[in-house]
Design goal:
InterPro entries: Aerotolerance_reg_N, UPF0353/GerABKA_families, VWF_A, vWFA_dom_sf. This protein is of the alpha/beta class. It has helices spanning about 15-40, 45, 55-75, 110-125, 150-160, 170-185, 205-215, 260-270, 280-290, 310-325, and strands at about 1-5, 75-90, 90-95, 130-135, 140-145, 190-200, 220-225, 230-235, 255, 270-275, 295-310.
């Protein structure tokens, strides 16, 4: 299919009628001056060999050259063949904990913000892989399906918050099951990576066994720990003033990262456990390196037309016209018949 890559350059052609109008106006003005003063000073005798037609001819060649250069700038091209490109990579699900314990401020500014920052760094680091986002607290839900639109993934991560889920808890077992179920719905069985970013509060003990089963079905589970073993109170963000979550006895709840449990989940799931409290960039690099060793599968095939440009032809014609214009003198020639 023939088309112009940058057709907006054709607006420059509007300059040509303006230049022609100026040339005609100047020529008419000069002819009037020649008619009025030529007889007085003997202009024809002073310059008997000057052609009246060579000027318009040279100007016309220049205008044609400009027109061809504009066409060249618009880049005429034609698609004469179709090329297929296969894309391979790993399907990566990020499971982000949005339970209220993620508001704890044992790491600054709080666990939730650190978790978002880590997830965004991870999305920025992966290239060529598909990324999906699962948010979970009491229940998991698919916030964003697998995609290579990393800008959209960054946006979804940034908006993740405990305010999005009123059902509290930390249903990592259900999040793992969701990734397994999503894989079973596809005809082509693919190896997948699940990165769980959590503080480990209130995990079900069955999550360890679930991660092991998921591993047998092609899902490798990595766990990123957010928080400290010493812990911190859980602020109640909706209170409007300084208030912390209380237990049934009326005591302030001290939320602590459950390191031993989430490490067991990672090991059982065939992955690794990392703490990402202060060295997020290092952890991201290690994680990306680990995932690069996973089996890659084809998940996308794109077909696009390969275009061949023809602007060189129009540039050559324009240069030829300018060369011809350069060698045309203003003197009269025998091959060009003209009247005085």
């Amino acid at each position: 299919m023939f088309h112009f890559e940058q057709p907006y350059y054709f607006y420059l052609l509007l300059c040509i009628p303006v230049l022609i109008a100026l040339f005609v106006a100047i020529t008419i003005h000069n002819n009037k001056l020649r008619a009025h003063f030529g007889a007085l000073i003997g202009l024809e005798r002073l310059a008997p060999n000057i052609s009246r037609l060579k000027g318009p001819l040279k100007f016309g060649l220049m205008m044609l050259a400009i027109a061809f250069l504009v066409v060249a700038m618009a880049n005429p091209r034609m698609g004469n063949k179709t090329q297929s490109v296969k894309q391979e990579g790993v399907d990566i699900f990020i499971a982000l904990d949005i339970s209220r314990s993620m508001w704890a401020e044992d790491i600054k500014p709080n666990r939730m913000e650190r978790a978002r920052q880590f997830a965004q760094k991870l999305v920025k680091a992966v290239r060529g892989d598909r990324v999906g986002l699962i948010l979970f607290a009491g229940h998991p839900y698919l916030q964003m399906p697998l995609t290579t639109d990393y800008a959209a993934a960054q946006l979804f991560v940034q908006t993740a918050s405990p305010k999005l889920d009123i059902t509290q808890g930390t249903a990592i077992e259900s999040a793992i099951d969701m990734v397994v179920e999503l894989g079973e719905k596809e005809e082509q069985k693919k190896q997948r990576a699940l990165i769980v970013i959590t503080d480990g509060e209130n995990h079900e003990l069955d999550a360890v066994e679930t991660a092991k089963i998921a591993k047998s079905k092609g899902v490798t589970t990595y766990v990123i720990g957010i928080g400290t073993e010493s812990g911190a109170p859980i602020p109640i963000k909706d209170a409007g003033y300084a208030q912390f979550q209380l237990d049934k006895a009326g005591q302030v709840v001290q939320s602590k990262m459950n390191t031993s449990l989430i490490e067991r989940i990672a090991v059982s799931g065939g992955g690794n456990f990392y703490k990402a409290n202060s060295n997020a960039d290092v952890v991201v690099a290690k994680l990306v390196h680990k995932m690069s060793k996973l089996e890659k599968t084809e998940f996308e095939q794109q077909e696009f037309d390969v275009y061949e440009s023809y602007f060189q032809i129009f540039v050559a014609i324009a240069l030829l016209l300018l060369i011809v214009e350069f060698f045309i003198s203003y003197r009269k020639s025998n091959w060009l018949k003209e009247s005085r």
